[in-house]
Design goal:
By secondary structure, the chain is mostly helical. The radius of gyration is 20 Å and the shape is globular.
Amino acid sequence: MAMRNGLLIHGPTSWAAAARADSGEVEVASGPKPVLAPELAGRVPLLRGPLKLAEAFLVIPTVRLRLRSARLPFEDYRVLGSMLAASGLTRALRGGRTSAARELAQAVLGLAPALVALGDRDLAAYHGVEHKAIGAYEQGSDDPTTATKEHKRCGSNLVAPMLILSAAGQLLLDRVLERPGSLARSAVGVASVSLAAEMFAWSERNPDTSAARAFHRPGHEIQRLIATKEPTPAQLEVGVAALREILRIEQEAGDRAAAEGEEVPPPT
């Protein structure tokens, strides 16, 4: 996850983050990740996506406490204001007559805070740092400048399917129930995340199919045009520090697990 002044990286068992402090120094922190229902998260379709997403969100407060210099994407009055505005507009749209266009508009409104946040060039650049640092590592290179700022496993690949599935699900819900409650609408939201995550996983297992390429195309364009910027050398330095820290702490976790006879999670 890109931050306004650094990068958070998730490993199989741990997290690591690096941030550029106001003093100019690169500060690093790391620790174990929370685990929610590990048996379900790894094996049960439709449940594993939301569980993994929840685990990722649970890390964020810990990162902020352990790395005081870190600045999160939503730590901006403009982003907070857009969140409130989007929520209010969504509620207003809910009061009108149901239509596919109205449901899609509500789904798109959910993207407004992210778009406002990405108006900060540093955040978009650190998103590029994330992709370049990890991409170079996957290519066996120590030089992140050799990798592109777009990455095939970016969460932006979930945006288009989640928008479509959420709008379609809410529309169907309004057709089935006369007055859907918040619980039913939340269930549809979770279901759209689950289905999008399964589509994402399938595309990763079948990367050479035309369906997988079509699935990744909107996400790639979102990254290319909006979500990422080319980082500076100083920003790449922060990304390299985060990558080195996650590799170090995962190696230590693997050594401990091996010494205790436990199964070592594979890299992701």
